[in-house]
């Protein structure tokens, strides 16, 4: 078995004395893993940096085996990311998010959003929408279109922390202290203030923790809170 394609490197871990196992997101193939022999060499270390785009050739005797990667650098981002702390944290967080996806399950929409995030100026609005899309593609998406209590589609201001469904302003009033804020930019057009960005990322963090991090006994990525602080400054 053999295939060749572009991939976004999202993770690398040591394997033996000189090799690594690389993870990459590949269009049409999803999250793919492969052994890179000699991957800890000086020559390959600069190539095998999460956030880089590479040309991958995967080979294995059987389709369900780990297989081996040969790797060629197409777009190096590591040097640029290191110069900007917010971009570095954002790239690291996006790669950690993509590693939550099941292996070999295509998620081309998320891959496109991830590349846009990594190659653009750090943006809390786009990150919040990416995390909503991630929840959706993990099968635990939120319903932000209609009020859970009344069915109305306007003036939605909060979200139930249990059901993940939107709640209108009137229905939310008696329970405001128990609900999560829903910034309008997540379900309608409009600008986002620093408080809106913080509220949106608090919302997505709640459901990522409920359905993913705690469920899999994982810690929240260490770069996320510092990144939220950077992205929600006025």
Q: Count every helix, treating DSSP H or I runs of 4 or more residues as helices.
A: 8
The low-confidence runs, each spanning 5 or more residues with pLDDT under 50, are: none
N to C succession of SSEs: EEEHEEHHHHEEHEHH
**Large-scale geometry:** elongated
Strand percent estimate: 15-25%
* Biggest beta sheet attributes: 5 strands, antiparallel
Protein architecture, described:
This protein is an alpha+beta fold and 234 residues long. It has two domains: 2-80, OB fold (Dihydrolipoamide Acetyltransferase, E2P), CATH 2.40.50.140; 123-231, no CATH class. It is built from eight helices and eight strands; from the N terminus they run E-E-E-H-E-E-H-H-H-H-E-E-H-E-H-H. The chain has a five-stranded antiparallel sheet with strand order 3-2-1-4-5. Strands 7-6-8 form a three-stranded antiparallel sheet. A hairpin with an 8-residue loop joins strand 4 and strand 5. It is elongated. It starts with a strand and ends with a helix. The mean pLDDT is 95.
